[in-house]
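Task card 7
Instruction: Convert sequence to structure tokens.
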Amino acid sequence: MFRLADIDDLPTLGRLRWNFVKEEQSVSQSLDEFVDRFVEWCKSNPHCFHFIAEEKDKIIAMVSVVIVDAIPRPLQSNQPIGYLTNTYTIPEYRNKGIGTGLLNFVKQWATQEHNAETVIVWPSEKSISFYKRAGFDDRNDILELVLRE
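Output:
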């Protein structure tokens, strides 16, 4: 049910990403333009990994993780950090544990495949409780400088 996406999944993931954004705000690109741009971006960003939940060969949820190598520190450990983004479940599959299962799959992958030290996410207001139920905690305050609106 959960797996790492492959190159053939990218157009579908682009459509899901477009729908995700469209649920919250108006979009300025056509679906086809965006999917092409999304696929090309994914192909040129090898540190970004996409994960999917499937039901009967249909992708019903996705999440993306960018693995960021930490700048060396004078400590014994120097593990990478995972930046979690684009968590999206098709509306009719929500509130069924699919997103939580997908996050658990990603947490295991980040630990086993990349020895990640931590995974971070910038949640929307409505998704904070979802991430907290999955084990995320607001231990560190992150300061954000908006460079462009």
